[in-house]
Specification:
With 269 residues, the protein is of the alpha+beta class. It has ten helices and seven strands.
Amino acid sequence: MFWRYVKSQLLVLLCGGLVGPIFLFVYLGMSAGSREHVQWLLTIGLLVTVADVLIALALARSGAKLAARVAALERNGVLALAQITGMSETGTRVNDQPLIRLGLHIAGPGFAFDTQDRVLASVTRMGNFTARKLVVLVDPATKQHLIDWDRSALVNGLVPARFTVEEDGRTYDLSGQAGPLMEILQILKAAGIPLKGMLDMRSDPELRQRIQDVVRRAADRPPAAAAPGFPPPERSAAQRLEELEALRGTGAITDAEYAAKRQQIISEL
């Protein structure tokens, strides 16, 4: 918690909060006779400095809560696939990135529900929005969920998913195959292994064998059956048009693509 606060405090200072301490140093560095003409330096300096500390504490506390939530879901939650059922703009931007509202249909073993989430539409996430599916960590009891962008990028084919099996003398490419990749991710999560770049399974023969079985089955499976997933609810024309507006607003599609797709939706009415 201490180092989290230190990082938050540095961030606040770098974002303009340094003005308060500067005013205090300037005021304290003056002679006693000069200070009575610039009392405002002391007042504003104290106010800004106290605000800096309070903001940094709030950021650190918020970050700690989020970290605890992520840890709890990693420990007790299950991995599930969420279908994006709708997208709309909120009119808010954070660091020049639009904040959008996602409609999600989350389904997994023994549960299925609809919910909403607000996320930043950064450039690195555009492929996930286009693929219309996300990997989420879910607590089935409370329906609390958290989008896992790293796992989503893997399932949606935004990063390569290649598995080398020495016994077969070949490398299997499962990039973008949601079904097998979700199964592998669930096996790794159950074993407590985080998703971090290249993984070497030679130290755990049993785990290695389970993953190899999934990889081989995926290689023998016809492409159309590789990712059964959970079908999303049927969307109305109004929802599709609203989502189209959000995609254009975030820059995921061009104006020409927007016009063509909008005309297509209208012609289907």
